[in-house]
Amino acid sequence: MGKKNKAVGVVYSTNPDFRYTYEDEEELVETLPPHKQKLNVNIEKKNRGGKVATVVKGFVGTDDDLDTLAKKLKTKCGVGGAAKDGIIIIQGDCVAKVKEILAAEGYRC
User: Fold this and answer.
1) Dihedral class, residue 42 (left if φ above 0, else alpha if ψ from -120 to 50, else beta)
2) What Rg do the C-alpha atoms of the chain give, in angstroms?
3) The pLDDT value given to residue 33
4) Which of 8, 9, 15, 90 is an S-S bond match for 54, by CB 3.0 to 4.6 Å?
5) pLDDT tens-digit profile of 37-65?
């Protein structure tokens, strides 16, 4: 027992083949190639203080790849934004421009 972190949700098991899972173990997520990804591009106004934002949902991949794509979109649109939990938020109404950029990169939207 080299790990000091507690197992998640299990105190004791009588199963001899049971494998404890620890909180700091992460599942490896592979980034799908652009042509296999189907991204949804929408405008949202809710929970944004009345401001309009372009939201890109459906990205499957690592956080680093998500950040890279978000940075590319923000730079080419000339606006700010954020990327977290597989969602990219671009400030303002940039749906047409975002779809054009994603299509040029090989993504389906």
Assistant:
1) beta
2) 19
3) 87
4) 90
5) 899 999 999 888 889 999 999 998 889 99
The sign of the CA dihedral 64, 68, 74, 80 is positive
Q: Give one DSSP letter per residue of 63-96, joined into a string.
A: HHHHHHHHHHHHHHHT--EEEETTEEEEESS-HH
Can you name the residues that pair with 79 across neighbouring β-strands?
A: none
Q: Look at the domain 34-105 and name its fold.
A: Translation Initiation Factor Eif1 (3.30.780)
In this structure, are residues 43 and 55 in contact, taking their beta carbons and an 8 Å threshold? Answer: yes
Domain edges within the chain = 34-105
80 vs 54: CA distance, rounded Å: 11
Q: What backbone phi and psi angles, to 5 degrees, belong to 43?
A: -105, 135
**Contact status, residue 29 vs residue 83, Cβ threshold 8 Å:** no
Which carries the bigger pLDDT value, residue 21 or residue 3?
Answer: 21
